[in-house]
Specification:
Chain B: Keywords: Cell membrane, Membrane, Transmembrane, Transmembrane helix. Chain B: One of its GO terms (cellular component) is plasma membrane. Chain B: It is a multi-pass membrane protein. The complex is a heterotrimer of chains A (350), B (207) and C (617). Chain A is of the alpha+beta class. Chain A folds into 2 domains: 116 residues, Orthogonal Bundle (Helix Hairpins), CATH 1.10.287; 225 residues, Cupredoxins -  blue copper proteins (Immunoglobulin-like), CATH 2.60.40. In chain A, 38% of the residues lie in helices and 17% in strands. Chain A has 8 helices and 10 strands. In chain A, helix 2 packs antiparallel against helix 3, helix 5 packs across helix 8 and helix 6 crosses helix 8. The two termini of chain A are 52 Å apart. Chain B is elongated, with a radius of gyration of 20 Å. In chain B, helix 2 packs antiparallel against helix 6 and helix 4 packs antiparallel against helix 7. With 207 residues, chain B is mostly helical. In chain B, 78% of the residues lie in helices and 0% in strands. By secondary structure, chain C is mainly alpha-helical. Chain C has a single domain, classed as Cytochrome C Oxidase, Chain A, CATH 1.20.210.10. Helix content of chain C is 67%, strand content 1%. In chain C, helix 5 packs parallel to helix 19, helix 9 packs across helix 15 and helix 16 runs antiparallel to helix 17. The longest helix of chain C has 35 residues. Classes of the chains: A alpha+beta (350), B mainly alpha (207), C mainly alpha (617). Chains in contact: A-C, B-C.
Amino acid sequence: MKGWMGKFKSLFLLTSLAIILAGCGRENLTALVPKGYGAESSMNLIILSTIVMTFVLVIVIIVYVIALIRFRRKKGQENFIPKQVEGNKTLETVWTVIPIILVLILAVPTVAATFDLADDTNASEHINIDITGNQYWWHFDYANEEIQTSQDIYIPTGEKVYLNMLSSDVIHSFWVPSISGKMDVNPENVNTMYIEAYEEGVYWGKCAEFCGPSHSLMDFKVIAVSPEEYEQWVGDMQSVDPEAEPQDAVAQDGKAAFEENSCMGCHAIGSSPAAVGPNLTNFGDRSKIAGFLDPTKENLVDWLMDPEAIKPGNKMTGNYPDLSEEEANSIAEYLLQLQPSEITPESAGN
Amino acid sequence: MSHDHSLNPETMPAEPEKATLEGKNKFLGLWFFLGGETVLFASLFGTYLALKNSTADGPTSNELFGLGLVFLMTILLLTSSLTSVYAMYHMKNNDFKKMQLWLGITALLGVGFLACEIYEFAHYIQEYGFTFRSSAFGSAFYTLVGFHGGHVLFGLCWLMALMVRNAKRGLNLYNAPKFNTFSLYWHFIDVVWVFIFTVVYLMGKVV
Amino acid sequence: MSIAATQKRGFGSFLWDYLTTVDHKKIAHLYLFGGGFFFLLGGLEAMFIRIQLIKPENDFLSAGLYNEMITMHGTTMIFLAAMPLLLGLMNAVMPLQIGARDVAFPFLNSLGFWLFMFGGILLNCSWFLGGAPDAGWTSYAPLSIQSPGHGVDFYVLGLQISGAGTLIGGINFLVTVVTMRAPGMTYMRMPLFTWATFITSVLILFAFPALTVGLFLLMFDRMFGSAFFDVALGGNSIIWQHLFWIFGHPEVYILILPAFGLFSDIFSTFSRKRLFGYTAMVFATMLIAFLGFMVWAHHMFTVGLGPVANSIFAIATMAIAVPTGIKIFNWLATMWGGSIEINSAMLWSLGFIPTFTIGGMTGVMLGSSVADYQYHDTYFVVAHFHYVIVGGTVFGILAGLHYWWPKMFGRILNEMMGKISFWIFFIGFHLTFFVQHFLGLMGMPRRYWVFLEDQGLDMGNLVSTIGAFFMAVGVIVFLINIIYTAVKGEKPGDDPWGGRTLEWATASPPVYYNFKQLPLVRGLDPLWIEKTEGKGKMTPAEPVGDIHMPNSSILPFMMGLGFFIAGIGFIFQVDHSAWLIAVYAGMATAIGSMLIRSLKDDHGYHIHKEELEREAD
């Protein structure tokens, strides 16, 4: 018996080492450190199923290793004919019944959690956000509050927020691993899910349904702030004056260039439920440009000059006049000054 | 033992279509094939049921369908199934001429069915502007019914080829299984039509 | 038609022989060659994918090309590599295992191969004709509808043609097993690999038509403007997902059940012990196949089908663990108390058990719908299905190849190289895919062309890519082994392993009519029974007599070629009507060949008794 225990121990050590080396991933991105209701539900089941299945795996490995060691053909056994066994009723019953029990242990909490997460009976009493998935950006419409934004979605901590999701083109999937599992964003029907973040933070969100060349760049952020900060953010956003003239001359040029180059045909500043392109009301507050670039002026100028090089297959390329370096620079200055709220990703703690 | 002798015995056995291993294999193979066809049509029916109300402001099933013509088509196809049974009966009695006669009638009924179907489709297109591209319902309707019509057409070609090829040489153990498998296929097409009649036309008038 | 005439021949007649063959053993060679070729192609695509993901924000491949790679890797491996390789093994072995001289429909058998081959070539022509399909191997609508160019059209027509071939092959096997078993070979005496072939064929028969319909709808939408998946006209893209997975889930059992079957035979042979719980094994296989049709929506937990559907499909999915567990434990019990010989074939089988158990374990974990909200469409899923498909199917194919190579080709694969390739591939496999479970949970969705810096995903991806190179080396060693064996391999005789089933009662390689006299089967493991209780070889069930054989024919090849040409024309006629010429020419070739086949009598020929008696000496 000592032999296989030793082997098992070393196997166990090796596995744990591998896991430790790999780590649990980046905080606020990984599903392994749940920080929201849905992610916690999933995690509980992940842990339960891992335990149950590891139990089976360990038994299989033990029997397998013993069988290999004990019954391997040794020297001098070349002509040995083992007893031909047809089967064994008791044994076969045992390894039919035990898996059934194990499956039941897993099935009951699975069904309970499935119904729990699909429950949207009280949706109207909570914050509702209508989400539109687009190639390759996200539109967020707080219909009741009459706020529209994109890429960064603000929610209060400790509250259920209902997301009503529809796609404008192909199927996407809304996934914020640290807060909740994913749900598909279909073009034909509104899918509703709720999320709840336990603590403040900027949570990474990703598109999880293959949607074209820039599928991997369709990131977004869920910014969970305290309920008070959330209220303040809503107020700030509602009181934005889209016509307000920027302070400095460059930004003023930028605003003019923005208007001249038909940017406004797609990009709204201020409240506008329909959106061909991302709403830019709080562009200067956003954590990323185009969903994944650091919010620096250089990045924004690069993006404005040649979006195709940054996000292949995006719908902005070719739909506006070529910009001069100067125009791009001034538009970038203007956009980065669109900072209507004091509540920014920094408010959430990172 | 030469082939001619083995396939043209003095007295034909009671079930010439299953007297050889090849015959049995053909028979069984076609049954399996029809099993696959069942899934094919089940998938088409499923698609149709999912999309039958997706008319996108185009004509609905209730506006389109007239049961008179469809009833006639049903009669034609059901009768053709019966005539093919007669043909098989005569095959088992080794009466080649009568078998050919009944198969000919089967073919005529099949052609009649197809003619009605073509008229029906033309009617929808001309009178209602209801086409394959009109709506998801249009696509699903023409695909389901068209697949069935395509099967009828294929069956007719098959039957013609069989009848013409064997017209001069009579029945033997080599071609008997071929007639038999055709007949089996033809019954299947008929059964599918019964489902189309019910699910597409009758339910289309009710719902 | 005598053997002597074909002994000395040039390359031309060798080629002609294979183009026209209807002999199941030669068709097996063709399948192995075709499937092997596509396996290497798919492997190459896999290497490009892993190189692209070796570091964050890599620019080795462009986004578009990367999507073409993943699409073609998946499609090629499933439809053009794994399945044909398994069909090759089935063709090589199953008729021998039931004591048959041939399959029920030798002509259709050949047609099935050529349709698969031309379908596969058509699909891969896309690389040179404007770009490969790029909507993923699942080709979800509406992405597949919107995909520009002709890539997805190649996907549709290539799979349609090769799928028809597979369906034909499936029907052929079904009828063969029902009507062609040797005297005494009852159903419950059939070896597990034959059972697996039979049940897999049932799955092919009932699963592929759903794909056929799905592909038709996709083609109509793309080429003729229908509205199945067009939301603006009332279409619904979820229909594609249902049809695809009604086919797709049974498809994974089509891939794994034959492997289960051949592992059963291998464990039994190399443990020198009867398969433990034979009856339970047969019924577990049936149960897995049956449940395989009931669980398709577990690929769609996140689609929003509602909690009732999700719960039902979650429970049904977990239920599959029960028959699969029965199988695993029966294999262990077969080895228990046996006399286990470890060689290359057995190594691949032994490597299968822990690998597949991990894959099955993650399978149950994925079946838990709420947990799946996290796993779905991430690298966790990628890891899971590679554990079952590589750990089950590919290990199975390699085990089967090592096991039956002497039977198929008369030479035994080199043991040393066999073991080396196993260990390199095995280690590489776990390096590549184990870490991907964690990558998925750490927030890496699948089908990501690049992953961003500073997300904690760098290390795992690097390890995975290194593992992929090990796997590539393992495959290369195996290829060298094949070449070495073809040139210098040992000729081990007819029954090198102490076989238990009927294929080992034939010559290696078997004569073209398999059995001069059909054997009389007296029980499960008929050859083993004769070895232990009889005279050591099979008792004939009939006197030597004339043997009826089918004629070779070039028509199946011509039909495949015709559909191939028509397919190319059909894809491009949307751009220019001159391509319709290709459609007409191709269809004329195909339909003309069919007409020749139906109108011209082909009674086959007989090998006469005297000739057989002469050859025996």
